[in-house]
User: Which sequence fits this backbone?
């Protein structure tokens, strides 16, 4: 058995779509005519049942994602209620919240309701950010990441590869991520959609693998390959582990379907990789 442990994480889109921001990679922005399901306040019983299914498949983490720029009082109350219920029913599940920009005070409220980690992505380098979003700044994103640490939550911050950024932008982006000393770096590969203004990436699978290797050279912690794993790497996604990834998302993503947890678990078994049983 290989000693390397792979951490499985999972996501629930608990509020989907209708965002007024203009992030050019995001199907949940209402600026683009994407064909996604839109809803607010997913039923808490449904969220708990999703968490139970994914936890039984081996997911140690469960991320509560809401669309929109950031937390407000209504959203904070709702996410806190969901977290409290989940902690009651699945006390060992690592709960991650991903609800956009947030103040230290809001993050402390989430922590008190049972949230363990907060995910807020820088998305790309400071220099390139204005090319992919004009309605809020990269600095606001960076500040929320700092707030996460001040509030005493684990920080999960990463971004998206393949938005048209240069190699230099990626280099700056990785250094900016590292300056935050995150617990986990989630890396997504852009999932093209005809309704979005960003064209499909020209990066090839080997480029993607080299990018993961580059992050691994700089970072000892958890590197999670999240959205776009299946669409970018196809059946070569097993190679991400050789390149240094040690975490994946199982189940579905925010607005796209995953390949299915059973297939991923079968892949890890075939590679003789151990599935982590504790979220350190
Ligand atoms: S703020 Fe979040 S939900 Fe809104 S468009 Fe940007 S990435 Fe999408």
Assistant:
């Amino acid at each position: 058995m290989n000693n390397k442990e792979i951490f499985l994480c999972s996501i629930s889109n608990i509020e989907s779509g209708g965002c007024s921001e203009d992030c050019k990679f995001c199907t949940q922005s209402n600026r683009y005519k994407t064909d996604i399901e839109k809803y607010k306040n997913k039923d808490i019983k449904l969220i708990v049942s999703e968490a139970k299914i994914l936890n039984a498949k081996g997911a140690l983490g469960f991320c509560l994602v809401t669309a929109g720029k950031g937390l407000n009082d209504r959203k904070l109350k709702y996410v806190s209620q969901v977290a409290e219920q989940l902690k009651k029913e699945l006390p060992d599940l690592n709960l991650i919240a991903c609800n956009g920009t947030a103040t230290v005070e809001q993050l402390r409220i989430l922590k008190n309701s049972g949230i363990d980690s907060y995910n807020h992505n820088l998305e790309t380098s400071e220099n390139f950010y204005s090319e992919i979003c004009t309605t809020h700044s990269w600095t606001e994103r960076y500040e929320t990441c700092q707030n996460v640490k001040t509030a005493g939550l684990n920080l999960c911050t990463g971004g998206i590869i393949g938005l048209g950024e240069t190699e230099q932008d990626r280099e700056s982006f990785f250094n900016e991520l590292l300056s935050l000393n995150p617990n986990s770096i989630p890396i997504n590969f852009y999932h093209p959609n005809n309704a979005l203004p960003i064209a499909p990436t020209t990066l090839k699978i080997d480029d993607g693998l080299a990018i993961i290797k580059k992050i691994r050279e700089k970072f000892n912690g958890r590197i999670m390959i999240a959205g776009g794993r299946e669409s970018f790497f196809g059946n070569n996604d097993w190679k991400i582990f050789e390149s240094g990834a040690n975490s994946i998302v199982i189940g579905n993503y925010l607005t796209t379907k995953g390949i299915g947890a059973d297939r991923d678990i079968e892949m890890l078994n075939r590679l003789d990789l151990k599935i982590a049983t504790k979220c350190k």
